[in-house]
């Protein structure tokens, strides 16, 4: 009865934790969408699109949207791993819970952390006795948990460089008419001033879009990396306090 109650409590806490990770991402994204709606309402986004003849700002916006979907997918995956970790702790922490390590831990829910526990069980059976060193297995688990999180750093750097590229192109457009500028020709002077204004608009809007996109991407993936680190820490605590002691005390066939 107590084991069932403990499992239900842990499951409820896991659901809450999963929702908290996703809720944080959704709050941040919601605020970003609200800011975009305001900019569109006051015509600033439309002004940026029509002023940027290179369309680099539009490319930055599309790449940012794609990255947001990737971050949501990774956040969802990490939230599920956190839930699985807590469910494993609920199973293994009850009296007699170490029996869940029998038969390659088939009683545990599937996931990366469970795969790590199964690898520990197989290692304990192979070495038969002695202390179980899970250092290399933990490194593998950390790499698998991080997955494609590095995509965020790549996109953030790419957005920044696209903004700088737009700045350079904008200055080229702005300075190009100066070579053929004739101060006595008022028509040519007016045309040149228009081109210089267009070049400055390209430089400013692409730089602004690149900086804002890069900052927002960094914030999202910072939150994702923090959640990933928490899941990894939970997995280390779980294996060090419940799995390896049981395997070391009952080598070969954990009870």
How many domains?
Answer: 1
> Which structural class fits the helix and strand makeup?
mainly alpha
Overall pLDDT metric: 81
Summarize the helix and strand pattern as letters. Answer: HHHHHHHH
Distance from first to last alpha carbon: 20 Å
InterPro entries: MotA_ExbB_proton_chnl
Pfam family, one: MotA_ExbB
Subcellular location: Cell membrane; Membrane
Organism: Bradyrhizobium retamae
What features would you highlight for this structure?
255 residues; disordered N terminus; 82% helix; 8 helices; 0% strand; single chain; mainly alpha
What does this structure look like?
This is Biopolymer transporter ExbB. One of its GO terms (biological process) is protein transport. Pfam families: MotA_ExbB. It comes from Bradyrhizobium retamae. The protein is mostly helical and about 260 residues long. It has one domain. It is built from eight helices and no strands. The chain starts with a helix and ends in a 6-residue tail after the last helix.
């Amino acid at each position: 009865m107590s084991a069932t109650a403990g499992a239900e409590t842990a499951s409820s806490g896991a659901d809450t934790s999963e929702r908290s990770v996703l809720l944080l991402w959704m709050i941040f994204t919601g605020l970003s969408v609200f800011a975009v709606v305001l900019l569109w309402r006051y015509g600033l986004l439309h002004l940026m699109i029509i002023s940027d003849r290179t369309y680099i700002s539009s490319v930055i916006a599309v790449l940012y949207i794609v990255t947001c979907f990737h971050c949501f997918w990774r956040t969802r995956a990490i939230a599920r791993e956190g839930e699985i970790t807590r469910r494993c702790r609920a199973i293994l922490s009850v009296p007699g819970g170490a029996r869940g390590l029998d038969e390659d831990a088939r009683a545990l829910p599937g996931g990366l952390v469970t795969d790590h526990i199964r690898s520990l069980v197989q290692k304990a059976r192979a070495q038969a006795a002695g202390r179980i060193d899970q250092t290399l297995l933990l490194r593998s688990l950390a790499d698998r948990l991080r997955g494609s999180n590095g995509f965020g750093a790549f996109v953030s750097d790419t957005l920044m460089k696209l903004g700088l590229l737009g700045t350079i192109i904008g200055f080229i457009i702005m300075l190009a008419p100066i070579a053929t500028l004739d101060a006595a020709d008022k028509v040519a002077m007016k045309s040149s001033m228009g081109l210089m204004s267009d070049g400055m608009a390209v430089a400013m809007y692409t730089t602004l879009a690149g900086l804002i996109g890069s900052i927002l991407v960094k914030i999202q993936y910072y939150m994702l990396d923090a959640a990933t680190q928490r899941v990894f820490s939970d997995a280390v605590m779980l294996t060090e306090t419940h799995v390896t002691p049981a395997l070391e005390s009952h080598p070969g066939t954990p009870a």
